[in-house]
Amino acid sequence: MYPYRLLPTFNVMNRLQLVLVAVLAAQGLFGQSRLRKMPANVNHPSINNSAPFIALDGNTIIYVADVAEDNALTLNQTNKSGTNWTDPVILPRAVNNHLNYLYGFGLSPDGNVLYISNAKSNGMGGYDIYSCARRGSSWAEPVNLLNPINSKLNDACPSPSADGMAFYFMRCESMTGTQADRCKLMVARKKPNGQWDEPVELPAFINTGNSQSPRIMGDGETLIFSSNKLQPNKGGMDLYLTRFQNNTWTPPIALDFANTAGDDQFVSASSLGRYLLKHMPGARATELVELLFPAEIRPKTTIKIEGLVSGPDQPESAFISIFDLRNNSKVFATHPNASGQFVTYVKEGSIYDLSFDPALDNYTFYSRRFDLTKEKFSLLEKVTARLKSATAGDTILLEGLGYRDLTADIDPLSAQELRRVKRLMDGNPGLNFTFELSLAPYLNDSLKLIPDMTEVQRDTIRIPITYAVDSVTTATRDSLVVKVRYHNNRTAAQSQMLRDQFIKMGVSGDRIRFVQKLISAPLGDAEKPRTRIKLIIR
Questions:
Q1: Tens digit of each residue's pLDDT (9 = 90 or more) over 164-210
Q2: What angle do CA 429, 434, 439 make, to 5 degrees?
Q3: Residue 293 Cα distances to 29, 200, 214, 532, angstroms
């Protein structure tokens, strides 16, 4: 992160000091709180809260609390509203009754489907998993998931993956309303036709006799579960973590930062992956708290992308693709539905190129880059684009086109955007194209204040100096002074590099033009300098 917002426009020493502070902050030396409590409207001093399940989108929590008549345990719900959590409400009887395995509930990634485990007489076996769709502020009647998810045994604690393609749960030989024993972790994967494949057991080194409460994290590869049959063990049910890597599960490791001498079993985390939500004893009652994941085992943050395509008569004809620009590999490809909508997920740690490509070459396209290598980003991104037949006057912001830092060289990560522009040009042979390169902010100073100011401007100034020849006579001579200024305007060279690239790709030079814009800003208000490129069709 560039700390330009912290730099005043005066006093170089102050600038350097503030740069140092910003760098330290960027390196995380100020840290994050290791324990955060849920707010007082949720953690009431006279109410015992436990077993929280937070939806991956981070906006809904279902948990157990002793707030019913005679302090009976019952399911409660709180929702995120801005930065706050709403006052909890007790779930309706249809999904919250004595036939439930009390701790067997879960939520879909978006929090719009509640799963419960219930022992209704018309089920497949003992306890079955049911789904309940959100209906306004309440929930619809439960629907049995049937085969192959449910069986003749007891099925509970569902945890669907963020992309909806995997469904983790536990299958137990023994279960009551509050206890389960001799359980195994299962996973069912979705087939191309949208149906669930037959569930399979996780490996024997995970299923060691009583593994329970699976929670798949937003990254789709980190699984947290509980067991009293694994070592090391601090007492009772302890929490363990395994990862699906290279097509296999890693040996489980104990979550020492969260395990205690008592039972540690029912936990969850949003797709941000920074904190583990669980219950712990408070001053007067059991509270819901968040524990900071140690960096070495923290799940990867996953963001949700909701897209909407419009323009073509058949929006589903558009092609949606996402490339991981680290290795230029395609990680997602689909067509939107008939309404032009699609949903996908991407994990932190890379830079992604998202594009909406039309079925016809003469149509405009849309692209956007997601940089998930930074420290902070939104868990939800909504992307809308209108694709249309290209005409003079249309403009396209080329987010996927850029340059290497501190140079005029085209960034290799721009390959996908270059391909899309070339396709548009080929599909519209009668049109010409102008590339507008805008540098913001343009910086020019007598001091090289930041590394981005790579360009040097030297002006020679003649200064007449009068001097004495003798006691009576004077003369004048010129003194040459070289005035040096530093700036970051590389747009002319960048334009030339881009022209050369398209000519190399077979585009006629007379079809393309380049213009440059320099946008100045006070140094203290500036972001990291960047050249943005807009394509203007003419």
A1: 899 999 999 999 999 999 999 999 999 888 899 999 999 999 999 99
A2: 150
A3: 16, 29, 17, 37
